[in-house]
């Protein structure tokens, strides 16, 4: 009996020692959740393992928080714990309470500094214990510092058209992507270059300032004029063509086509319609004319057509006008020419985005039957839209006319993604007369690449104000100063460019989906007493029953009288 006990003890100790040795040599983690919520992607693990310097991550979500934000804070902590598993001591995390860690007289200045770094504040209403309401300003985001670089990342997906539960779940879904894309941008040895194309009446620096500032978190952003130079775009990962107003000549078209044939990516943000709100407010009317950009044949070759027809949508962003009913107070009124388009929920570019604000947009048709080009609709109007032929006059007093809803019965495409091998616009044309100094034949079909076409250039333009020194930015991109709402313009354009240049494969993390398991409140209320009794009494009964069974078993095993042993005389 004693030898057997010693053998069992030795086996147990040896097994535990062997398990400890194996676990120290081979690292593994087991994720038992259905959505693999705690499993990091291969790309994330690789980026974290390759950090060669300390990375400081300061999260400004601490203190007395509402329940939803406490859940978000817990999700951030769990995600950073997973990050530390692979980054080790190089990842240094701190959580701060912006309201509690700063003196009251310095709080406003500290809040302003956080806003300047790029963190977006959120104001929430809270009910106090005495029944009164108070407002709390929160910064659900983080500032990440690596070496001499710093960037802010916002971790709350603040979609104003969804419920708080859905917004919170979407924020948890996107945590890994939002954090790791910023870490990747900061830790990369080389920064990719992108260029805003100029020279065709495009908006100036002030009008694209906010978008350029956001792009600068991930890229080296430049403004480049083509001017017929053949290799001027070769060093850029992508180019952005933003609301040109003058025609492209054939030389510039060939340079862009040559860039695409060699695998270059293009974000086309084009106005099919030329209309101006400034003249509308100044004189009460404006003319909507077809834009003359000389790009129709090029885009048609690639598989799309931006139609010079004006989009009108019942789902729109109002404008502020003074009505003719005698009231002098400016009043918000629906404006059919400012559609609010819904991003597609099926694309990693547009998932979980706020509605996007367009102004005097045209609409897009996909053309051609080339099976090598895949076309994905990214932006689409509501089903209550229509088109208006141009040229036409737009009058400000249209806001007072009743809307004939029976005519608004279409959903129109205003943004599309194209992927594949595109045919060259110049595949059957000689370019010797354009560039006599070179001996180069256009490619018949290019390398596999991607481009995105949006039929409104104003999607990328922020408001400006005029000063003696010139135009300066007045509002963030996508922000309406009258309704004080921020739409999804900037997030969409950032995602679009990130998708086009996604060498690390991080964009697929935006497709992660956590199932939202909501309690049925009706069933919960109907059986509230039953579930309370089960939760309170069942553990006690199980504990008492287990103790009784254990006592009976021990009594039967050890309480039996031993049989007398007969001893031979």
Describe the structure.
This protein folds into two domains: 37-185, Glutaredoxin; 193-511, 3-Layer(aba) Sandwich (Rossmann fold). With 569 residues, the chain is of the alpha+beta class. The longest helix is centred in the C-terminal third of the chain and has 31 residues, at 528-558. It contains 13 helices and 28 strands. Strands 8-7-9-10-24-23-20-17-18 form a nine-stranded mixed beta sheet. A four-stranded mixed beta sheet has the order 2-1-5-6, with helices on one face. Helix content is 30%, strand content 24%.
Question: What's the SSE blueprint?
Answer:
Elements: H1 2-25, H2 42-49, E1 55-59, H3 67-87, E2 91-95, H4 107-117, E3 122-127, E4 133-138, E5 141-146, E6 149-154, H5 164-173, H6 175-187, E7 193-198, H7 209-215, E8 220-225, E9 238-242, H8 250-261, E10 265-269, E11 273-274, H9 277-283, E12 285-290, H10 296-302, E13 304-307, E14 310-313, E15 319-321, E16 331-333, E17 340-343, E18 356-357, E19 363-366, E20 373-380, E21 385-388, E22 392-395, E23 413-423, E24 445-454, E25 464-467, E26 470-473, E27 479-480, E28 485-486, H11 489-500, H12 521-526, H13 528-558
Parallel strand pairs: 1-2, 7-8, 7-9, 9-10, 10-24
Antiparallel strand pairs: 1-5, 3-4, 5-6, 11-12, 12-22, 13-19, 14-21, 15-16, 17-18, 17-20, 20-23, 23-24, 25-26, 27-28
Sum this structure up briefly.
This protein is α+β, with helices and mostly antiparallel strands and 569 residues long.
């Amino acid at each position: 009996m004693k030898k057997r006990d010693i053998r069992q003890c030795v086996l147990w100790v040896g097994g535990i020692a062997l398990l400890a040795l194996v676990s120290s040599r081979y690292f593994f983690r087991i994720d038992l959740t259905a959505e693999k919520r705690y499993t990091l992607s291969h790309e994330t693990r690789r980026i974290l393992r390759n950090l060669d310097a300390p990375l400081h991550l300061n999260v400004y979500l601490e203190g007395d928080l509402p329940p939803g934000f406490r859940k978000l804070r817990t999700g951030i902590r769990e995600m950073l714990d997973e990050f530390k598993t692979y980054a080790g001591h190089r990842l240094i995390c701190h959580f701060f309470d912006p309201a509690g860690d700063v003196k009251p007289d310095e709080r406003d200045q500290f809040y302003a500094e956080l806003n300047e770094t790029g963190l977006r504040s959120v104001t929430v209403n809270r009910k106090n214990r005495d029944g009164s309401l108070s407002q709390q300003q929160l910064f659900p985001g983080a500032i990440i510092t690596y070496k001499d670089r710093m960037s802010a990342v916002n971790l709350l997906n603040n979609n104003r058209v969804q419920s708080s539960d859905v917004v919170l779940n979407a924020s948890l879904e996107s945590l890994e992507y939002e954090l790791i894309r910023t870490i990747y941008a900061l830790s990369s040895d080389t920064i990719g270059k992108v260029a805003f194309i100029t020279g065709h009446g495009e908006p100036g620096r002030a009008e694209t300032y906010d978008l350029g500032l956001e792009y600068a978190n991930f890229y080296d952003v430049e403004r480049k004029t083509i001017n017929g130079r053949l290799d001027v775009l070769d060093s850029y990962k992508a180019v952005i063509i933003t609301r040109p107003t003058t025609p492209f000549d054939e030389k510039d078209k060939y340079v862009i086509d040559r860039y695409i044939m060699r695998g270059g990516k293009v974000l086309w943000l084009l106005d099919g319609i030329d209309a101006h709100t400034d003249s509308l407010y100044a004189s009460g009317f404006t003319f909507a004319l077809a834009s003359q950009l000389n790009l129709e044949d090029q885009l048609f070759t690639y598989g799309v057509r931006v139609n010079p027809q004006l989009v009108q949508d019942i789902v729109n962003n109002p404008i502020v006008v003074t009505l003719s009913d005698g009231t002098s107070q400016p009043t918000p009124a629906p404006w059919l020419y400012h559609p609010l388009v819904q991003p597609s929920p099926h694309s990693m570019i547009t998932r979980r985005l706020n509605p996007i604000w367009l102004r005097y947009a045209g609409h897009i048709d996909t053309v051609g039957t080339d099976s090598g080009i895949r076309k994905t609709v990214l932006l689409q109007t509501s089903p209550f839209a229509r088109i208006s032929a141009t040229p036409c006059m737009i009058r400000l007093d249209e806001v007072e006319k009743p809307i004939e809803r029976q005519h608004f019965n279409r959903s129109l495409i205003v943004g599309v993604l194209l992927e594949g091998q595109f045919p060259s616009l110049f595949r059957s044309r000689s370019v010797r007369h354009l560039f006599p100094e070179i001996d180069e034949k256009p490619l018949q079909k290019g390398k596999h690449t991607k481009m995105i076409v949006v039929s409104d250039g104003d999607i990328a333009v922020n408001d400006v104000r005029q000063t003696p020194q010139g135009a300066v930015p007045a509002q963030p991109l996508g922000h309406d100063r009258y309704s004080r709402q921020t739409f999804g313009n900037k997030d969409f354009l950032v995602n679009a460019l990130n998708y086009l240049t996604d060498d690390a494969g991080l964009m697929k993390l935006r497709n992660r989906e956590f199932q939202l398991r909501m309690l049925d409140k009706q069933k919960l209320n109907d059986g509230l007493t039953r579930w309370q009794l089960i939760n309170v009494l069942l553990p006690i009964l199980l504990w008492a029953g287990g103790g009784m069974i254990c006592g009976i078993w021990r009594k039967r095993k050890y309480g039996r009288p031993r049989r007398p042993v007969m001893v031979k005389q």
